[in-house]
Amino acid sequence: MLAERVNPPTARGTKAKQEEDERWLACRRGAGHDETQGEGRIVRVGARGSEEGAGDGRRGEADEEDKNGAAGSRLLQTLILALIGLTFYAYYRTTVYDVRQFSLPRNTNHTVYQEGLHLHMNLSVDTRLTGAPRNSSSDNVAPSQYTAHSVNNLSTLLTTLSTSSSSSSASTSVSSKQSNEKQSAVQTVRISVSNATRSSSVVVRSDSARAIYETGHTVPIPERCPNLGKDMDLVVIVMSAPTHLDARTAIRQTWGHYGQRSDMSVLFMLGTTNDRKVETILRKEQNMYNDIIRGRFLDSYSNLTLKTISTLEWVGSYCPKVKYLLKTDDDMFINVPRLLAFVSKHARDRNVIFGRLARKWKPIRNRKSKYYVSQAQFQQSIFPDFTTGPAYLLSSDTVRRLYDAALDHTYLKLEDVFMTGIVAHKLGIKRSHANEFLNKRIPYTACNIQRGISIHMVKYSEQFDLWKKLLDGKSKCK
């Protein structure tokens, strides 16, 4: 049995071997079939991979093209936005330039200022216009000769004159004349009005104060001069800048306190400002004290002459019967008791301006100086005698005449030279030197303060010290 197991019979062994060989061949055939199928799958997978690779390549090229297209689109958008921005910038610059051409300020110190010529006429006929003139005011201005009409209303004015119930006949002639003398172009508009009794002629020059001055006051406060000043000896009008609140407050609390008297008033003259915050403060200040007159001029150093003209207009319109007008600045200390004594002493004087007299001053021809005066503005080599600007006293009969003459004269920003020198000299108004008008800074001794009427260059904090020394009766001064 053991031998049979170890060495099986040959037939059985042969048959088993054949079966094993058949199984082996069957396995081989199956493996070959699987290999063939595997190779097919490999080929198909490879082909699919190739196709996918090609697709990825095409997608990459498309993405690259998209990126290039997006970059080009962004560049185009940037160029379009830049063009739009340049267009708006050009339009803005053009618009601003055009607006500036039509928004020139009314009050300038240009030698030639052609816009808004005012025609000032003293007529006995009715000159009220149906349309509001350029210088129309909502203020209740008392009827006076301080009425101006613009050139644009010239035809309306003439129509009104021709249809008036009076027997006067009006004829006009408008001419323009250019003069190259001393590099100055002067243009004139002449209006002639004649009737059976008189004839008058008004010439408006573009370099005159009338061409740039706008009449009226935005805040007139006529109640500060009751009965047109009939019972008043003095009105003091202080030239002040809009921002000088401290100076005005110090004056109100010291020598300006005399303004509460019935025979005098102390008021402030201001122009306009473009600062809204300052305007808000000024409105509150006005509501509290009601002592600020507001003119229709831009408040600046170059317009000091306009400020003085506005002061003369206010006095002529609302306070013509007062005896004297003191024009002064907000850096001045005024000895009011001594000033009232001076006014009482000269109560009967007429046609006079009192102050510190400046004699034989020469105009400065240096263009860099803020006091520069051109040959076109003043040709002579020496100014007429004038009273210096910090403080001067005018008899009331000079106010109206100075106002009218100043408007028709060549404008000069040096207001004291212009008003009390050139214009006053032309009118034959006497300028009288008064020693009490110091108009300069002096040692602040009690005797100096009690002797003088006006002290210059006083800081608002110093007003209280001078006020105390003025009221101190212990000092004995000769």
TrEMBL record:
Enzyme Commission number: 2.4.1.-
Biased composition (Polar residues): 177-187
Pfam families associated with the record: Galactosyl_T (PF01762)
Region listing for Disordered, in residue ranges: 1-68, 164-187
GO MF: hexosyltransferase activity
GO CC field: Golgi membrane
GO BP: any one term: protein O-linked glycosylation
Principal location: Golgi
Compositionally biased spans, kind Low complexity: 164-176
InterPro entries in UniProt: Glyco_trans_31
Bilayer topology: Single-pass type II membrane protein
Compositionally biased intervals (Basic and acidic residues): 16-42, 49-61
Record bears the keyword Transferase: yes
Compartment annotation: Golgi apparatus membrane
UniProt cross-references to PANTHER family, sorted A to Z: BETA-1,3-N-ACETYLGLUCOSAMINYLTRANSFERASE, HEXOSYLTRANSFERASE-RELATED
Protein name per its UniProtKB record: Hexosyltransferase
